[in-house]
Every structure is written in C-alpha cells, then in structure tokens.
Specification:
The protein is an alpha+beta fold and 742 residues long. Strands 8, 9, 10, 11, 12, 13, 14, 15, 16, 17, 18, 19 and 20 form a 13-stranded antiparallel beta sheet that branches. Strands 3-4-5-6-7 form a five-stranded antiparallel beta sheet, with no helix packed on it. It is 32% helix and 26% strand. Strand 23 and strand 24 form a beta hairpin. Helix 5 crosses helix 7 and helix 9 packs antiparallel against helix 10. It contains 18 helices and 28 strands.
Length: 742
Amino acid sequence: MVDMKALHQSLFAIATIILLISNCVQAKQSPNLVISAQDVAMMQAAIKGDGSFAKTFIKTKAIVDAQMALPMSVPTPADGGGGYTHERHKKNYQLMYNAGVIYQLSQNNKYADYVRDMLLEYAELYPSIGLHPQRKVNSQNPGKLFWQSLNEAVWLVYTIQAYDLVHDSLADDDINKIEQQLLRPVAIFLSEGQPSTFNKIHNHGTWAAAGVGMAGYVMNEAEWVEKALYDLEKSGKGGFLRQLDELFSPQGYYNEGPYYQRYALMPFITFAKAINNNQPERNIFDYRDGVILKAITTTIDLSYNGLFFPINDAIKSKGIDTIELVNGVTIAYGLTQDSRLLDIARQQGQIILTGDGLKVAKALDAGRVTPYQFTSTAFGDGADGTEGAFVVMRQHADGEPADKGQALVFKPSAQGLGHGHFDKLNWQFYDKGAEIVSDYGAARFLNVEAKYGGRYLPENKTYAKQTIAHNTVVVDERSHFDASTKLGNQHHPELLFFKHTAQGSVSSAQIDTAYQKVNLHRTMALVKLPDSGEPLAFDIFGVKGDEFHQIDLPLHYQGQLIDSSFARNAFAKSLTPLGNSNGYQHLWLTAQARPEAGLAKITWLNDNGSFYTHTAIVDGETEVLFTRTGANDPNFNLRNEAAFIYRKKMSKAHRFISVIEPHGVYNPSKEFTLAATSKISALNYQFEDELELIKVRLVTGKQYLLAINHKEHLPAKTKFSYQGTDYLFSDRFHLFKIITKQ
C-alpha cells in the first residue's frame, strides 16, 4: 500500500530542490502575498465605480482616517488578553494592514507614511523588551509584545502584509531599520527562538509557520520559506505541509473541532495564498486532493443558524461571520467561482479589499448567488479519516432553510489535542434556530481581562472539560480517560456506521478505552414521521462492563423546565454539591426522583417557542437527578445551566433508551399555547440478532417502528417479524408505520 503522506512529502521535496536550484524566491514586485500587484490594478479600477467593492473601500478608508487622526500609540507590553496594551497591539496590526491596503488603492502617500512611522516605532520598541510580564510561568511559548507567542505570530501575519503593501514606498534606511530591528528579530524569535512551538503540529505552529514563511517571501529569505514548509531542520516532520497532513482529515475536518478549525483556517489560507502567488509551481491548493479548499467548506458545514457547533474548547458565540471564514470563503470563491459560496458571503455581509474580494463583490452585485446546501455528513477524524468521526444529521421541512431545521450532532471523534474535552459519544440537538440539548463549550470570557486575564478559566479544567459537563455516560463519577489528554489522544471511538436516507439519518459508534473493561456503545437517529414529517431523535446507549459500576447519563438542556411525568423531591431550602471532583463538585443537586417502571418524561420550553419532551424507558430502579451549575464557584465563573441525570447504581450492564420529541407552540405575545404535552404514549424496545427495534405509539393511536440493522455486512434485504407482522427493508434502517388490524 502506498504511504500517501510520504508520497506527498517526497513530491514536495523534489519540487523544493528544483525551486531552490532555479532560485525561485527572488526579488519581486510588491505587493505579492495575499494581494498581488495584478490585483491592485483591478481594484483601483473598481473603486471608481459604485458597486459594493467601492462602498467597502470608502467605508474602510473612513475608519482608517479616523484612527490615523488619533495619536499613535505603540505601548510597552504590560497587560494580558483583553488589557489595554494587548488590545492596542492588536488594533495596531489591523490598522497597519488596512492603511497599507488603502495606500495601494489610493496611492496617497500619507497611508504608507503612517504604516512606516508605526513600523519604525515598533523597531525602536522591540529590541528593548524582554518576555512579556504576564506570560504563564514555565510556558514554552511566551511572547514579547503579547503574553503568548501565538498572538505574536498573528501580529506578524498581519504586519508582514502591511509591510509588503508599503515596501516600495520606503527609503532604504527605513527598510533596513524595520527589517533588522523588528521583522527579522520577530521571525527568528518565533522560529529558532521557540523550536518546540514552531515545529509543533498544532494551530500555534501553523500561525508561526505562516508568519515566518510570509516574511521569507517579502524579505527574500528562501530558507525561511523552506523552514516554514518543512520545519526548522527541513526534515518534513513538522512545518506547514505536515500540519496539512496531520491536522485535517481527507474531508477537511480539523482535529481540534469547529471552533479551532475556524481559528486555524486563517494562517492556512493566508499562507497558502501567499505560496500560490509567489510559487504557483507548488500547486498548494491541490495538495492532498485540495484539502485546504475542503477545510473551508467543511468549516461552513460545521455550523447551525450561523454559529459553529461548540464542541471542545469553544466560545459559543463564534460563527460564519468571523473574519477567518470571511477570508476563507473569499479566497475559495476566487479560486473556484463556486456560486454556493456567494450564499455564505451574502450572509457574512463583509467584503474583503483583495483581488478575490473584488470577485466576490462583483458576483454578489450581479446576483449570482445559489443556495448553499447543508447536508447530513459523517466527517472522518484524524489524518486518514479513520479516527472516529464527527457526525452531523440534518433535516428540515419543505421551504425551511437547511441550517434552521433540526440538527443532531453526534461526537464519536478523536480527543482533539489539548483543546479536546473528555466526552466520547457526546451529542447535541438543535431545532428552529436554537440549541435544545446543549454543550457547555469553554469556560472562558475571551479578552475580558477581569475574568482571569481573558484566558481559559480554572473551571475549564475542573468542569467544562470533564465528562459530566456533556451528554454522555459517566462511570463511577470519573471522567473518560481520567481526564488525561495524553491518554485520550492515544484512543478514539470506532464509527460503526452512518447512513442518511429520505427518512432521516442514523449512526452508531463504540469505544472500550474511555474506561478500563467497560464498553460504551451508542446509536442515534434523527427521523421524520411518515405522516406529518415531524422529527424524532432516538438515543440508545449501551454500557457493559466486567464489574459493578454506577452509571450516569446526563442531558443538559436549554430552556425552562415545565413538567415531569413523575414526582420530584426538590431541595428548596438548601443545596449540596452532587459530588467532590471530576466536575460533580460544580453541580448543585436541586431535585431527585425514582420514577416507577415504564416511561419517564421530562418537558422543557425553549426560547424558540417550542416544547421538548425527553421520554425514557426506566426500570423502577433508575434515579433521576436534577442539577444546576454553580457549586464551588466563588467567583461566579460558570454560566447557570440546568441538566438532569439518569443514574443506574450497581450495574454491570445497562441500556438507556430515549426519544426527544419537539412539540407545540408558546406565544406569550399573542397569549396562546398549543400542544404543550408530549404526544408519545408508549415506547417499547427490542434487540435480537443484531436488529434493534423501537416502537413508538402516539396518543392519537398511530404507531411507528424504527428498525436498525447492526450487522457488519448488510444483506441486500433485511426481513424480520414483529408482533405477528413481517417487515422487509433495505439498507441500515427504516421507520415503518404500523398498520393496526381492525
């Protein structure tokens, strides 16, 4: 079998030798990173018209003019994330870049002079400062201008573009001072000064490689480019190309999850564009079957109603309008002219002042938009796409936008490096534009200095990453892999199958390494009832071990609890934490119950005006615990969120079976409520010969049977008998309407 990664590296190594022999990186016409000299000519012509590109130019110029009218500030670094100096240096690199663009389009020297003067200020400051005073103790990647070198690399990515945009207007003495006292020292600090970060297969390494590689193009340092591509030793064990090999699956899914896929996208696409402009012979956008372009569309696919699915260390407010994806969509459209991308660009509502941005603007002005189709997909995880998967199941009513119907997110994916959470086989559910079954995401107030300097809060480790903060099984109140990132990175779930049909989607996965001698197996389905098209979300979670365990299955919901079909013992006068560690210490126990054998129902109302009922089959011995975050949180760092937990004690094996059913309407403005109670009256489960059967009966008397075939090798047709009736279906699953005999 051919080692594709080795082949990729070999081909690029040969190309590198040829390019070096021919001295491909030579003195060039400026600019030529993301914006080329050829782009500038077309952009200058466009701003003389009245289209959206010209309007963006006028708006951006006005913003730059207003900022340039203020006193220039290049302060000595003092603050962590969110503090004045941190934010000032961020604004400075953005201002320099924008001023450089305005200079190229207007040819007004005052903009180039402003960038020059700020760069000279930095050239005076940088040699005088040491490591940042707010850096983490014993950190391997402290910065100088910023508390971590990641921000320094971002600064260089923007600043080197600003320098490239004004380079040809500068005097030789200024060029020498800016390069020798600023840009060269920053590039060396981020590469030779921090080899472990620069060579790392991680988004920090990607940003550093992009900044140093782009500086190499501008400053005619061919060695910097090669080191950025292949690592400091040019061995191919690290560097930009290795990052493309290791961090993305063949489908373009990024190992750390959607939030960091969005963040990492910026250096990948920016450096790739610079490579393409300077060394088109490398065919960088064809690398790994076009993995960079796939990563851009996959980033879009990992969103719902404009926001990214918040798995792992995610800020839940981040969405498709972030500047990283705006740039990604712009570059992708410039290369492909895929009109579906214009739909996303239209929603983003931002035009980038680049050559590709001009193409997007012209196409939007001409009305060339076609709808972007969100689909149900299992995104393989890992470099080869074999380390589990991130599964997105979607469905929507006719005429309803695909990203505002229902979405069930199933997470049998890999750990996700240091930003990963310990939540194998976790899930989330969305409906009518809202999060219904939720994930906490990250415990962090980004750039809010008063909250731990804007960094990840301590509760990110003590709660948000712990398994109980997610919607998956916890055994003996211990998190998966005992919350060891190193151990978690060595294992991943096995995706057993994923299938999507006109009826809906089903997926099944398992893992036996999250706990020793315990197998976790979960099957999830999102299907439409044949008559009404109404959705049901099925969840079957099997746990099997060699010893007796306490097994908890939490469900975190968004909304107001309305009712339950069983009595609850509420703790109205005093609360105690649910446990002592592994995230349990942060949960107040607000009520508990032990429903009788049969069905247990819990209903809540979401802000979207719909009711949701979780119906579970219980055995009379399973407890239900109601919780709320906030225990052992003296600084009020945790958001106040609710959950209920099904707890089975002293069990070697147990199967949790449940269905979530959206129903009803609540309209407080017009003062009416419809169908506030569940329609499900009975739920039956059967497993035989690898065939899983769930029968649902509604209060109307209608009955449905979901059949799922778990056989590894599916027959052409699956035939079975249920309650005296024969059934036949093809493929992995089918939802039957049961015809009752009169």
